[in-house]
Q: What sequence folds into this?
């Protein structure tokens, strides 16, 4: 029994389960728009995460069941599934999961010791190594996978049949593109906002990171000469809201203090916008988050030096 | 006018300015203070369930000593007195049984009887057994002759009286009050700590409600003797009756003692936080209240000091809260050295198979042994504590959720401190201000991975000092 009057989630497992639950509305909306492929990709990611986590725990000589009981692998699987583009081949999912768990999480010494966000490391590795295959979508604006059935998707993921002719998709949907207004396109974003706000209310994530991130991106976008509408539309692209609420807020890889977190959010938001505006990659979120993660110890030290506790104030 | 007196006037003015300065906050800070529900001068802390209603309804009941064996501790920590009684010797209540040096409070028999032996015994609030005088009470409880002593008229006389009457801090630290009084170099502020921020404890609450006049009188006396200009009682807002009684008593005594509310937030009674809330002064880590012109006393200590000064009564009993899973919870005035097992029977708690917490649930410890006895610093017994306290779980990994940073009242970063402690990195520990930690345990209680942060910090503090 807790002595605290307004208890916050008390156990690590509860915290992880809450993240999973709050991820579901966004994922469900995304699946509703983009078809069954979303669920299949999620399933694969979770299975790979579970397998690699168990194997690596065993390899490191930890207690496997105890290590799995914190459910961090489930959260990683769900986040990675949403971070990867749709309809990527199965081996690529495996490579990303392996990079996230082996190279990032367990190589750093296990849960809570990694400096980089594991999901972003997984995505970053495949994004750099297999850029051509990773972004096959003819256009980000259309739910081009919505009509694919389970069998087609599975065959595509296992690469047992030749790749779908994406140009045909592009051609077929080119005309329909304009029918997708901003509102229909961004459905999953509302789910992520709702889930993120719920997590913030439950004190699982800190709201200042997404706020600082969104604000800095919008302001910078407007400073670059875009209108406010364009700047806000910018947020709906490429899983920006998902990243803001569920990836950048990862407590392990974000700063300790509120001032630090605001600084971190501004860094990530600014870098994202810079990469989107001037960069080579289609989406800079992954690299912006990784760069922000690397700066966390510096931000922490800066805040520690700048902020004096109340009892050390000169009176 | 001589230059000397001019200087002293200037010093007085600067002191008054220093006193007023912290209250003049910028306009926007004052706006924020109005907007927020509680006016606090520090951040963090946690709101705890009180459980005060279990034991605060009934008046303090005296304990009648039968023919049982008492174990009166001869000190605490590193401060012990020399026993001055022999086995077989008959002593009466209030008789000196241990004489200390200049830094150790004397020890007195808490009832009449025959000294059995001098042996190691467990005090309720110490993990290690301590030397104690085992006294076979004769059940008569007869006082030694007490010639009514004159009032001490100098600070030195007060220090001597406090030492010889065995007064120690009853808030938990057990520091000899005489040393505190002697170390106070011209204080200008007397702060009386009646916060009682720990859940379950109601001994100070009852004491303030029932002995308000005596407390005000004692506070006035100490302030007048030491040349203190302002006296403030700090009481958490969950004790409105105690505040009202003290206010009425202060009005009746026509004194300028102020009764100030403290936020109902653990650990509002922690020394630096209490001083900050009541005076706005900053108690830097490693410095004592005396360094910033403050004399801080617990209400129970002040009451004992008043009894010693006005009645010549040594500190041989204290108010103790009996609470938790028992039939007759409440407060009792219990003689020092009284066995816990007797109190358990008195409260009607089941004799075995339960965990008993001594002190509050946050700062206290489990009862070290079933045959432990009450010491001067035991404030509370929580029977069946496992029903109320959070279950202990094995420690997991830190996910840097920074809840500990949010709740730390001293604005530390417990998670970084913990990492530095694990690395045994003394430079980092110092840079992260380990010395400012008041070991309140707020961080441990909110950690989702159940990491024993406070215990680790306690350990590292001794390592750093070594």
A:
């Amino acid at each position: 029994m807790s002595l605290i009057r307004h208890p916050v989630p008390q156990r690590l497992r509860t915290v992880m389960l809450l993240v999973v639950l709050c991820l579901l509305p966004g994922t469900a909306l995304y699946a509703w728009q983009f078809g069954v492929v979303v669920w299949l990709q999620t399933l694969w990611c979770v299975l790979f995460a579970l397998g690699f986590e168990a194997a690596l725990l065993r390899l490191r000589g930890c207690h496997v069941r105890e290590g799995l009981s914190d459910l961090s692998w489930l959260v990683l699987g769900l986040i990675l599934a949403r971070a990867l583009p749709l309809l990527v081949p199965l081996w690529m999912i495996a490579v990303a999961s392996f990079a996230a768990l082996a190279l990032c999480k367990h190589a750093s010494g296990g849960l809570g010791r990694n400096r980089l966000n594991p999901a972003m490391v997984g995505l970053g590795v495949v994004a750099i190594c297999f850029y051509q295959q990773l972004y096959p979508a003819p256009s980000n604006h259309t739910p081009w996978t919505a009509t694919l059935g389970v069998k087609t998707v599975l065959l595509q993921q296992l690469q047992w049949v030749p790749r779908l002719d994406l140009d045909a998709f592009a051609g077929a949907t080119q005309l329909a593109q304009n029918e997708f207004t901003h509102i229909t396109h961004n459905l999953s974003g509302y789910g992520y906002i709702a889930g993120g706000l719920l997590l913030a209310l439950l004190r699982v994530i800190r709201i200042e990171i997404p706020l600082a991130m969104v604000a800095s991106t919008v302001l910078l976008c407007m400073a670059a000469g875009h209108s406010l509408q364009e700047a806000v539309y910018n947020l709906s692209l490429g899983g920006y809201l998902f990243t803001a609420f569920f990836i950048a807020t990862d407590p392990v890889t974000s700063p300790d203090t509120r001032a630090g977190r605001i600084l971190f959010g501004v860094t990530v938001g600014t870098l994202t916008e810079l990469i989107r505006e001037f960069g080579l990659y289609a989406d800079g979120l992954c690299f912006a988050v990784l760069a922000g993660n690397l700066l966390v110890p510096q931000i922490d030290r800066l805040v520690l030096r700048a902020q004096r506790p109340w009892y050390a104030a000169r009176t | 006018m001589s230059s000397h007196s001019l200087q002293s006037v200037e010093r007085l003015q600067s002191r008054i300015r220093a006193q007023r300065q912290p209250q003049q906050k910028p306009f926007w800070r004052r706006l924020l203070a109005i907007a927020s529900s509680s006016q606090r001068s520090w951040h963090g802390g946690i709101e705890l369930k009180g459980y005060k209603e279990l034991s605060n309804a009934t008046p303090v009941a005296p304990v009648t000593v039968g023919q049982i064996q008492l174990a009166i501790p001869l000190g605490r920590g590193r401060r012990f007195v020399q026993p001055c009684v022999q086995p077989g010797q008959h002593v009466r209540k209030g008789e000196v049984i241990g004489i200390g040096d200049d830094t150790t409070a004397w020890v007195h028999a808490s009832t009449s009887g025959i000294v059995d032996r001098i042996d190691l015994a467990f005090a309720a609030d110490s993990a290690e057994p301590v030397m104690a005088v085992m006294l076979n009470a004769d059940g008569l409880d007869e006082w030694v002759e007490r010639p009514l002593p004159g009032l001490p008229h100098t600070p030195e006389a007060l220090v001597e009286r406090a030492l010889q009457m065995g007064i120690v801090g009853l808030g938990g630290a057990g520091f000899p009050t005489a040393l505190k009084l002697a170390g106070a170099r011209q204080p200008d502020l007397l702060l009386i700590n009646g916060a009682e921020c720990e859940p379950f404890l109601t001994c100070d609450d009852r004491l303030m409600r029932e002995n308000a006049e005596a407390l005000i009188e004692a506070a006035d006396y100490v302030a007048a003797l030491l040349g203190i200009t302002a006296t403030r009682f700090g009481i958490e807002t969950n004790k409105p009756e105690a505040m009202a009684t003290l206010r009425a008593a202060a009005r009746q005594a026509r004194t300028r003692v102020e009764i100030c509310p403290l936020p109902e937030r653990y650990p509002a009674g922690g020394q630096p936080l209490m001083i900050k809330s009541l005076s706005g002064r900053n108690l830097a880590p490693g410095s004592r209240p005396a360094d910033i012109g403050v004399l801080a006393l617990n209400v129970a200590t002040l009451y004992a000091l008043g009894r010693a000064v006005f009645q010549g009564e040594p500190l041989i009993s204290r108010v103790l809260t009996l609470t938790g899973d028992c039939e007759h919870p409440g407060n009792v005035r219990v003689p020092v050295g009284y066995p816990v097992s007797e109190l358990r029977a008195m409260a009607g708690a089941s004799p075995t198979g339960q965990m008993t917490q001594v002190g509050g649930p946050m700062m206290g410890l489990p009862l070290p042994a079933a045959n432990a006895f009450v010491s001067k610093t035991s404030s509370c017994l929580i029977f069946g504590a496992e029903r109320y306290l959070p279950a202990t779980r094995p420690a997991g990994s830190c996910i840097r959720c920074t809840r500990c940073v949010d709740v730390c009242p001293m604005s530390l970063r417990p998670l970084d401190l913990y990492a530095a402690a694990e690395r045994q990195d003394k430079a980092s520990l110092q840079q992260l201000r380990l010395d400012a930690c008041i070991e309140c345990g707020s961080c441990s209680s909110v950690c989702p991975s159940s990491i024993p942060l406070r215990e680790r910090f306690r350990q590292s503090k001794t390592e750093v000092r070594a």
User: Anything to note?
Assistant: Chain A has 16 helices and no strands.
